[in-house]
Amino acid sequence: MMDCKKALEEAEGDEEKAAEILRKKGVLKAAKRADKIVAEGLTCVKTIGKDTIIAEINSETDFVAKNETFKKLSEEIMEFLLVKKPSSAEDALNAVMDSGSSLQDFINSAAATIGEKISLRRFVILEKGDNEALGSYVHMGGKITAIVLLSGTADDDLAKEIAMHAAAANPKYIERSDVSSEILDKEKEIYTEQLKQQGKPENIIENIIKGKMNKFYGEICLPEQPFIKDEEKTVQKFLSEKGADIKIKKFVRYELGEGIEKKKPDYAAEVAEQMK
What Å distances lie between residue 137 and 23, 124, 171, 231, 246, CA to CA? Predict the structure, then answer.
């Protein structure tokens, strides 16, 4: 509706001219595909200077995601975001490009050319400071991407190793304090019930749960995970051997389409629609 209103204002109330404006921007074609699920695409990363962006840009099919046009579009979107540094995806889509159009208009125009709905789902920009290192790792051509920011070192290759680990091991947190009380209470409840069913005495259940919770933290907290290249060491121990002051400051891991409910494809219907 907002697109239509803007087009009518630009056309000074001329509906035919407004429709032409919307067609040129790809809005009408994009609107027809608005209900399509976009769970394919790429998770990707780009660095300019001290800034690194990780983003998920979605398409409807894996076929389009592998297309060079889509990859070029993703690069252009990331470059724009690194310059503008918007605070959210909504702000990003409303941001104005050098051409005078919004990023959303730019994406709609590309979607009209590509023939699929395209979506900027999420992104994070990290800035590397003094005596900090930032590394990234892209797995399976963009199915999984991770970036890691370390403090206490300027070794970007070391940060890349930890990003590779994060991509493989799928940590959720850095510090134990980052884990919500709801998650912890649920885990304790499950462990308690399991132990009761096993007939464990009440007086030792508490100590057993402490051990289980330590193991749980070791599975979800990045510094406490066994390092993929040497599972005898935790990630933090591996880093401490490289430098006593090295810590994981931030990390982001994106897995393509995570959390999006996918529909089973009806290929016959898709072909019929493309032929309309």
Answer: 39, 15, 15, 20, 19
